[in-house]
Amino acid sequence: MTSIARRRFLIGATAALGGCGGSLKRFPFDQSRPSRDDPGMEIVYFGVACFVVRWRDTAVLIDPFFTVLPPLTVALGRVASDPKQVDPHLPLLANVESVLVCHSHYDHVLDLPYLIPHLQSNPMVFGSRTLQHTIAPLQLPIRFSAVNEHAASEVLTGQWLPSNQGRVRVLPIASGHPNNYAFIHVWTDRLTADRSTPPTRASHWQEGETFAFLVDFLDDMEDSVAHRVYVQTSSRGLPDGLVPESVLADKPVDVALLGMDCANYEARGEPSIIDILQPRTTLFCHWDNFFRSKDKPPREIVKVNLPKLKRWFDADDRGEFLFPGWNSRFHFPDPPRVHGRSAP
């Protein structure tokens, strides 16, 4: 493909991806639950696939992306963090000790370099080899855990990785990324060597390998799990994100953070990760048009019909299904303790 053809493709692709989905000005987003006096886990949804999950005095940040950029900037310009968009959220990130990146497109990781000085010192970053190669020229003060060789799958148990000074363990899980829209699938390279220069354009943030994660917050002893959170912000459907039954046998999933593709599969009657995990609570993400300024009412991305999906899941009695709005905060009480330890 010539440079001119490539440029036209990028403009067309971002125009399609930034196309006007339905307005969500009157959509009944599930509201924040105020924190109670009792201890528990808090999850904050910032937008796109970005969450922070906090338990007691430690936290995990997921897919760090706060800086919304217009389509032409993404297609042709330089992309960088905008402090005016990021800084208001910093107080909620101060006790983050680890970061999970499900894949390395810019809308899942752009603000990571800017955020590092504002997190706990020397945080752990879990991500793909591609992400490691992408950010290598930045020489960030982080500990990077490339999860490719540790990932679980339908047939592999995988390896739990410790983090947050032993208070959290993370299990990476092989997943996948669908086409962005119709036949369009952009920036899919898997890097095998470090970039020679820092990433400054959206196309420098190549997708690489895609992962889901199982995150356990550990109480007192390593084998005592207070809260189990499943994260899958991109999926092509099953078997993406599957883990052997033995991994889930000891502790069910309390909360699942799932991208809209998972919701679409379920609403179409196709088997989905929801059927396998049967989480107590599911929060759906990646519903928003991330080329649109947050100063304006939100709009959905073009391959999502959020009102229809909400009606469908409101009628589903297998668990609690939430569609959080930007900056929503949700509280989950700690489980009861049995003989001094958290009950499963």
Describe the secondary structure blueprint for this structure:
Layout: H1 3-17, E1 40-47, E2 50-55, E3 58-62, H2 71-76, H3 83-86, E4 96-100, H4 106-109, H5 112-115, E5 124-127, H6 129-135, E6 143-146, E7 161-163, E8 168-174, E9 211-218, E10 225-232, H7 245-249, E11 255-259, H8 260-267, H9 273-277, E12 281-285, H10 306-314, E13 320-322, E14 328-333, E15 337-338, E16 341-342
Parallel strand pairs: 3-4, 4-5, 5-6, 10-11, 11-12, 12-13
Antiparallel strand pairs: 1-2, 1-14, 2-3, 7-8, 8-9, 9-10, 15-16
Please tell me about this protein's structure.
The protein has one domain: Ribonuclease Z/Hydroxyacylglutathione hydrolase-like (Metallo-beta-lactamase, Chain A, 4-Layer Sandwich), CATH 3.60.15.10. It has ten helices and 16 strands. The protein has a seven-stranded mixed β-sheet with strand order 6-5-4-3-2-1-14. It has a seven-stranded mixed β-sheet with strand order 7-8-9-10-11-12-13. The chain is globular and about 50 Å long.
